[in-house]
Amino acid sequence: GESVGLHLPTLSVQEGDNSIINCAYSNSASDYFIWYKQESGKGPQFIIDIRSNMDKRQGQRVTVLLNKTVKHLSLQIAATQPGDSAVYFCAESPQGGSYIPTFGRGTSLIVHP
Amino acid sequence: DVKVTQSSRYLVKRTGEKVFLECVQDMDHENMFWYRQDPGLGLRLIYFSYDVKMKEKGDIPEGYSVSREKKERFSLILESASTNQTSMYLCASSILGMIREKLFFGSGTQLSVL
Fold first, then answer.
1. What secondary structure letter does DSSP report for A8?
2. Cβ of B103 and A8 within 8 Å?
């Protein structure tokens, strides 16, 4: 999952497996969370979001889980495909203030055929 | 689809040069942002703007300035480039009232300062 330090956390999976990417957020006031996917040579792209009044939200092959008690967010990708290989960022946004989201350091997902 | 276009994919400049990074969006978005991306550090906000001629500092504004003379264009300026400003720069936009939701990013400008 996302962590301190300059090394990008990496998750390697086999094609067809399920992937779980973790993110620990720091601001108790954050009430909105987004996952972005960044493919090589491209800018980040929105995948899915969740608000703090929910614990789980599902999209197409992706599920985001939110545990407010321990300030933890996860992105689950079902039946991972080579096209899922990318860097994944979580972003948290506090209620109030500028609302500008703060991004995590990212996790590199590598899918092996 | 929203398109956010950054004028250069790669840029090489010398220390002390004044550098302009340009960004244009075509969806009439009010909010625009400049981030820098460094390996292992994620995306850090430099400046953002929620309207023409309006600008707000982000987390790391030192050494940078911005200009927003037209709604669709947001420029990042490095007044005197330094080697520690070598980085990937990402521009993004979003709809007014949704400043924190669903940012649309450009493909980035990889700036090397020698």
1. P
2. no
Closest-CA distance of chain A to residue B72, Å: 18
Superfamily of segment(s) A10-112: Immunoglobulins (2.60.40.10)
Residues B48, B91 contacting (CB under 8 angstroms):
no
**What confidence score (pLDDT) does residue B95 get?**
85
Contact present, B71 and B53 (Cβ < 8 Å): no
Q: Which amino acid, residue A83?
A: G
Instruction: Inspect the interface and report whether the beta carbons of A99 and B99 lie closer than 8 Å.
Output: yes
- The domains found in chain B, sorted by start residue, are 16-107 (2.60.40.10)
Read off the pLDDT of residues B47-92 as tens digits, 9 standing for 90 and up: 999 999 899 999 999 999 999 999 999 999 999 999 999 999 999 9
**Would you call B56 an interface residue with chain A, using a CB distance cutoff of 8 Å?**
yes
pLDDT in tens, A54-88: 999 999 999 999 999 999 999 999 999 999 999 99
